[in-house]
Design brief:
metal ion binding; Cbl-bd_cap; Methyltransferase, Methionine Synthase (B12-binding Domains), Chain A, domain 1; 2 domains; Cobalamin-bd; Rossmann fold; 10% strand; five-stranded parallel beta sheet; Cobalamin-binding protein; Meth_synthase_dom; alpha/beta
Length: 226
């Protein structure tokens, strides 16, 4: 783990939004791409914080403060990109849209938020529903919004059985959205038995970005450091 990750983790735990933002901005100005910031800085800092919580080195309150501070930084970074017009402006008559949420009783949503930003940088409209969305509400929203892609996230192993009902019901929707499953457990376990042959299981944001480019092929991603 590099020093920048540890420093960011400490700032997140302290709730120091301004110093944390200075660190993120410096990394961005030094040429880091969005994917590098998401995967190598934000994600690793939050993983380190999770390890501290698991070993009782920090409290639940500490972890919650770090999460809300990280959420703020991601929103501020997204605003920076939009302000500088680095998000693709998709002027097609029919815009592509995607929906993002965590399974019911899942509370960890930051990875999901970063995934939504990956889509936004490629010109997609996004609906980020965050943590703990019951299946019936997910179905109702998807029927109304008709997203082309629905991305599900879960982080607790014992929720794998719940995943199968979400996938089955959402893939049965009349408009046939692509269902993508993500989360920190995917690199460690094989969840294919809970999904169909059409479900996309993607274990990283880089994999997600590559899949979007290969599957949809439009809305060329811009280099945010040009």
């Amino acid at each position: 783990m590099n020093q920048q990750v540890k420093t960011l983790a400490s700032l997140l735990l302290a709730g120091d939004t301004e110093e944390a933002w200075k660190l993120v901005l410096t990394e961005y100005q030094d040429g880091k791409t969005s994917l590098q910031l998401y995967e190598e800085l934000f994600t690793r800092a939050m993983q380190y914080i999770g390890e501290l919580w698991e070993t009782d080195d920090i409290s639940v309150a500490d972890e919650h403060l770090a999460t809300t501070t990280c959420d703020y930084l991601l929103s501020r970074y997204a605003y920076l990109l939009k302000k500088r017009s680095y998000f693709v402006n998709n002027d097609e008559k029919i815009k592509r849209n995607a929906m993002f949420f965590c399974l019911q009783d899942e509370q960890h949503y930051l990875g999901l938020k970063m995934a939504s930003l990956v889509f936004e940088e490629r010109g997609w409209e996004t609906q980020l529903h965050g943590a703990n969305l019951p299946l019936e509400d997910a179905i109702q929203t998807a029927e109304e919004a008709k997203p082309e892609v629905i991305l599900l996230s879960f982080t607790l192993l014992y929720h794998a059985e719940k995943l199968s009902s979400y996938v089955r019901e959402l893939e049965a929707l009349p408009h046939k959205p692509a269902i993508v499953v993500g989360g920190r457990l995917l690199p460690k376990y094989d969840f294919r038995k809970y999904c169909s042959e059409n479900t996309k299981l993607l274990s990283s944001l880089s994999d997600l970005d590559s899949w979007i480019a290969a599957e949809f092929g439009h809305g060329v991603k811009m280099d945010v450091n040009d």
